UniProtKB/TrEMBL annotation, chain B:
It comes from the Bacteria. Pfam families: AcnX. Residues 6-410 form the Phosphomevalonate dehydratase large subunit-like domain. It comes from uncultured Acetobacteraceae bacterium. GO terms for molecular function: lyase activity. Keywords: Iron, Lyase. This is Phosphomevalonate dehydratase large subunit-like domain-containing protein.
């Protein structure tokens, strides 16, 4: 396992360790408000990630928006094959956690450094809930 | 594990399968969620309210419900369902997918087999169950939770469909978030002494301003200085907008909500993050903030949350003797109970005579096939007096515009948007 270029500590975490490409959002997220739950594309007009796919990505969101839907929706999009690899939140709400636990998808809350300052979309990262860390493994080409 | 939820003897037996696989799975799931939040124990609850409709469940969620039913899952406390995505009386007229409608019937049957009361309403707090101060419940959607915490002083977290269902099956929930005193303190103060808030949409606009400023579940606002007693429908719009724009789970209003006899009491002895005022000028600015696009007025919606009987009565008065502008469609959504009462009381007739569609058991933004409905009808703008639905419907690619209630009716009847 290569040594990480950077380590972000997280406060709370669930799920198995995973690696994937980062999507770093400046805006919060709700699967109901922002996501087309048939394609995995963020479709809310004006969302700062409008047009971006979250499929197989490690998604960094500063906040959770809304909404009670994530409880079922994360499970649904996992079954449809368009789930993110992991959800990394600055501040989340219980619904996101309830949804991620049901889906078996890693989720974390709280971070020692703001990903927007130290990571870019396209960077390759590892999320390790057991060690409560997110690690940067490779910079985006 | 050191941070695991501490279990009683009963709970250990449940996790060992003494009450069956359905109970074991539900408690195991709740324990995992509780561990994330550092919950120290489970607490008993008296009532649950769950979202479960095919639009959000998907095929995987329906399979989950079938499996739970077949494993013998049964609610051990009263549990009701939130608004769903099909009003079967309207499904054909709306061009909803017959296959998905059949699945929705199967969802309802599976829930009923587990002793879930399929009341299909997001205003259970107005129509079905009013918990008392300190009563612990497990509710979702968010509008129901913020009302329970704030106006009743009951205790609930946002409990999504699977979480509320698990709570109904086990009769308990992990103690974290708003179940705990420490998260119920006000965090910042909002002075309303310069705000008139004369229309329901103004309360939603207030929720948008305050919610967007602190997008945080635990950011509990303390409202103060409002010069009259707010109505339940007004607090409902405020709560729904705070929960929608800010993901907030609770607010205080000094002299109105039970845990806020004074600003100091609401803040729980701590200094607020900040204090600011929202006055009429800021509310007016919200209405000016919506681009009107090509001025399309073909869709006006009164929904999200479902309307109370009083709201329907007001709308009936506003639409009385008028007709919708040709090409404009208006949707109202409410619960079965409210719609039935409105029919009996003569409030539906003026609406239906005007051409308004009054749907029951659904909410507009979760209607099955909504994106396709939008395309088929050529809807570009969605005009509503609900700040929540204006915020929430974005993924379906509507341009949304908030307007006051009487303005929405005028737009619907004149086809003129300004």
């Amino acid at each position: 396992m290569s040594a990480p270029l950077l380590t972000i500590r997280v406060e709370r975490a669930f799920g198995p360790a995973v690696e994937g490409e980062a999507v770093v959002s400046a805006e919060g997220f709700s699967p109901r408000y922002d996501l087309d739950r048939w394609t995995g594309l963020i479709t809310k007009p004006g969302h700062r990630l409008e047009g971006t796919s979250i499929k197989d990505k490690v998604c960094f969101f500063p906040t959770a928006k809304g909404g009670i839907a994530a409880g079922w929706a994360f499970h649904d999009i996992k079954a449809k094959g368009i789930s993110p690899m992991a959800y990394v939140f600055g501040v989340t709400n219980p619904v996101m956690v309830q949804g991620a636990v049901l889906a078996g998808v890693p989720i974390t809350e709280g971070w020692s450094e703001d990903p927007q300052r130290v990571l870019k979309t396209g960077d390759w990262v590892r999320v390790d809930p057991g060690r409560k860390v997110v690690e940067l493994l490779r910079r985006a080409p | 594990m050191e941070d695991a939820v501490e279990l009683t003897g009963d709970e250990r037996a449940m996790l060992a399968g003494a009450q069956g696989e359905a109970v074991r799975r539900a408690l195991d799931y709740q324990a995992e969620v509780g561990r994330f939040f550092g919950a120290e124990r489970f607490v008993p609850i008296t009532n649950a309210h769950m979202m479960g409709d095919i639009e959000v469940l998907g095929d995987a969620g329906l399979a989950f419900l079938r499996e739970a039913r077949d494993l013998g899952a049964r609610a051990r406390i009263p549990v009701t369902t939130n608004a769903r995505c099909v009003d079967f009386a309207w499904a054909d007229r709306l061009g909803q997918d017959p296959g998905e409608c059949a699945k929705e019937r199967e969802v309802i049957a599976a829930l009923q087999a587990m002793d879930v009361v399929t009341a299909d309403t997001c205003i259970n707090y107005q129509t079905l169950y009013q918990p008392h101060l300190g009563e612990r419940v497990a509710w979702g959607d968010t509008g129901t939770v913020i009302y329970a915490n704030s106006v009743f002083g009951a205790r609930s977290n946002f409990e999504s469909g699977p979480a509320a269902m698990a709570a109904a099956i086990t009769g308990r929930t992990p103690e974290y978030g708003f179940q705990l005193d420490r998260h119920r303190k006000g965090r910042f103060v909002v002075d309303l002494s310069g705000a008139t808030l004369g229309d329901l949409a103004d309360w939603g606009a207030l929720g948008k301003i305050v919610g967007e400023r602190h997008q945080n579940y635990y950011a509990v606002p303390v409202f103060t200085g409002f010069r009259r007693t707010p109505l339940a429908d007004e607090l409902k719009q405020l709560g729904c907008a705070l929960a929608s724009y800010g993901s907030m789970g609770m607010f205080h209003m000094v002299g109105v909500t039970p845990e806020a006899p004074s600003v100091e009491a609401a803040l729980g002895g701590e200094a607020p993050w900040e204090a600011f005022a929202v006055s009429d000028a800021e509310i007016e600015a919200v209405y000016r903030g919506y681009p009107l696009g090509d001025g399309d007025c073909s869709l006006v919606v009164f929904s999200g949350p479902q309307l109370s009987l009083f709201e329907i009565k007001v709308l009936a008065g506003l639409f009385e003797g008028r007709r919708l502008h040709p090409g404009t469609q208006v949707f109202v959504t409410t619960s079965n109970g409210v719609r039935s009462a409105a029919e009996k009381l003569g409030y539906l007739k003026p609406l239906e005579d005007a051409g308004v569609a009054v749907l029951e058991g659904v909410c507009f933004y979760i209607l099955q096939n909504l994106s396709l409905l939008r395309e088929r009808n050529g809807w570009r703008n969605m005009i509503s007096n609900s700040a929540k639905i204006v915020n929430i419907i974005g993924a379906h690619r509507f341009r949304t515009i908030l307007r006051r209630t009487a303005d929405c009716v005028d737009i619907a009847c004149t086809g003129k948007l300004s």
